[in-house]
Amino acid sequence: MAIENGTTVAARLVTRCESDILAKGVEEMITVDQKEIIRREYFLNRRSMREIARELHHGRSVIRKAIYDPGIPVYKRSVPAPKRTIGPFVEVIQQWLQEDKQRPTKQRHTAKRIYERLRQEYGYQGSDRTVRREVRGLRGKIPESHVPQTYQPADGGTFDFGEAYVLMGGRETKVHLGFLRLDYSSKYLVVALPSERQEALFECHLRGFAYLGVPRRMRYDNLKPAVHKILTGKNREEQAAWVSFRSHFLFESEYVTPGRGQEKGGVENLVGYVRRNFLVPLPDVRDFAELNAYLLDCCERDAGERQRFGRTVQSSGRRSGPAWGGCRRSCLQPVSRLWPRSTGANKSGSGATGIRCPRNMWAAW
Questions:
Q1: In this structure, are residues 144 and 133 in contact, taking their beta carbons and an 8 Å threshold?
Q2: 21 and 93 assigned to the same domain
Q3: CA distance 107 to 269
């Protein structure tokens, strides 16, 4: 008896399997043997998917899946299995997990505690393993809670440091950028400095306050020039020189939770915005004075062009009139007193008229 070729045998095998599947009334699922035949026809015999689909009586989507996925077929439910036991309690579990987001990490519900509460308070009759499986699936689906942010004029501002590269004196140089941004109007100032030391922090604030005014409250990362030690909750042990600086201008300081940059997301996004829009391509400047003049011009131009709630930043705030200027005159504190620019640390007297700090010679007021 003549031996039939592999293709004819494969066709008969698949046809027989199809008849069995249709007789049972279940969804078509090809086996690994059928996948092997399809892959051999495609890769070894160089036949097209159209030819294989026509001969083996499969759709091209099935052929394509078999070609790119030689693994064992896995059955997937088209409709999730009904949760007869735990189903009525899913909303209760979701509510408890959502409330846990606002509670201390070490005092949140465990799967065991949820199981106990369901039995005691709701008469749950299922097993603890069912509860554990449901809690495991829900934990990754509970979104972080967010509170819409609304601000009043001059109520607050944010500050952050960033880094960028520029061409300074013909050489590619890394500079440190200080960003001071007002919450209500979104108006901001960017200052370039050679470091992020404490005197750089002061210099950024002095220029920002002179340009924008002094808000009532400022939010920060846990910057080393300002924070000496992180205590429990929102409490911080601050640097003495920083406390003196803050007391001079009479504003309040707040610090975000470590690792939670979204608590001051506006200024975090501003760092990337400035790098992409002001420093591409790399600006070619002689020194920091020219670079800061360029950045100030960019801030002014951006405030007059960028839209916020249907208005430019320069005119946002009131329905008529020069809103930014009016808001600044009526709400923001002016910089009326000079700050003695001495950090109080690592300083040495130089006569009676100056204090020498790293890279700076500032007047002693």
A1: no
A2: no
A3: 33
pLDDT, tens digit, 9 for 90 and up, residues 254-305: 888 887 656 666 788 888 889 888 998 889 999 999 999 999 999 998 888 7
One domain, residues 330 and 220: yes
181 contacts 188 by C-beta, under 8 angstroms: yes
Helix boundaries (H) for 260-347: 265-278, 288-305, 323-330
Task: Kindly state the percentage of the chain with pLDDT values over 90.
Answer: 32
Q: Give the range with max mean pLDDT: 100-114, 278-292, 325-339.
A: 278-292
Q: Are residues 24 and 162 in the same domain?
A: no
Domain coverage including residue 60: 6-68
CB within 8 Å of 278: residues ≥ 6 apart: 190, 294, 295, 298
**Are residue 266 and residue 310 in the same domain, yes or no?**
yes
**Percent with pLDDT over 70 in the chain:** 72
Taking Cα atoms as reference points, which of 4, 2, 32, 5 lies closest to residue 17?
A: 32
Distances (CA, A) of 20 to 7, 26, 34, 59, 249: 20, 9, 14, 18, 84
The DSSP string of 98-165 is HHHTTS-GGGS--HHHHHHHHHHHH---S-HHHHHHHHHHHHTTSPPP-------TTS-EEEEEEEEE
The tokens for 208 are: 């920002």
Q: With contact defined as beta carbons under 8 Å apart, do 132 and 151 qualify?
A: no
Residue 4 has pLDDT above 50, yes or no: no
Q: Tell me the C-alpha distance between 301 and 294, whole Å.
A: 11
Q: In angstroms, how far is the first alpha carbon of the chain from the final one? A: 112
Question: Are 127 and 217 part of one and the same domain?
Answer: no
